[in-house]
Design goal:
Elements lengths: L4 H12 L8 E4 L1 H10 L3 H9 L6 H17 L4 H18 L4 E8 L14 E6 L3 H10 L4 H9 L9 E7 L9
Antiparallel strand pairs: 1-4, 2-3, 2-4
Helix pairs in contact: 3-4, 4-6
Length: 179
């Protein structure tokens, strides 16, 4: 669960233990998230911005979120990580359907547990294979959205306690949906 996040862990249980149908896909682990931050030397600038954050001041919250999200979106995905992700999505495309569309979803540690983070993180829908790395960065950047920062800090959760794993799932046309 600490490498794949709660959402991916639960989907895996649904598929493997209960044999219920789930979309085909894969997880970009929390290790990849840490590797991405380290390769781009983002820990220090993120921590510096978080240290000056005042969650009671909306302008401070919005500005800090914008700065951190921009750092992530402008950063380069390490070449080996990029190849691993694109190879995985190409394999998924070969198994599922050509012209595959995927959902790129958050699966952060502590998400969907006793503390939900509902609506705090980004989900990017209908992502084409060529855009998978951009979708990945959008989802991991959303770990630092104003809403996510406020929620995490308000619940006394440290930044290091919520590394972001990302689910890449085949988009499926549904007959019905619900909980």
């Amino acid at each position: 669960e600490t490498m794949a996040g709660k959402k991916a862990f639960c989907l895996s249980d649904l598929s493997q233990k209960l044999h219920l149908p789930t979309p085909s896909g894969f997880v970009i682990t929390t290790n990849a998230f840490h590797y991405f931050l380290e390769a781009n030397n983002l820990h220090a600038p993120i921590n510096q911005r978080l240290a000056g954050l005042d969650i009671s001041a909306p302008s401070s919250l919005e500005e800090t979120a914008r700065q951190i999200e921009t750092l992530i979106l402008k950063a380069e995905i390490p070449e080996d990580l990029g190849h691993a992700v694109t190879d995985a999505v190409t394999g998924l495309e070969q198994r599922c359907a050509m012209d595959l569309r995927v959902a790129v979803r958050s699966s952060a540690v502590k998400e969907d547990g006793s503390i939900s983070f509902a609506g705090c993180y980004e989900t990017v829908l209908n992502v084409r294979t060529a855009d998978i790395l951009t979708g990945y960065k959008q989802v991991i950047a959303s770990k630092y959205s104003a809403r996510a920062l406020y929620y995490r800090i308000n619940h006394g959760i440290l930044d290091d306690e919520t590394p972001m794993a990302v689910l890449v799932l085949e988009m499926i046309d549904s007959n019905a949906s619900g909980v």
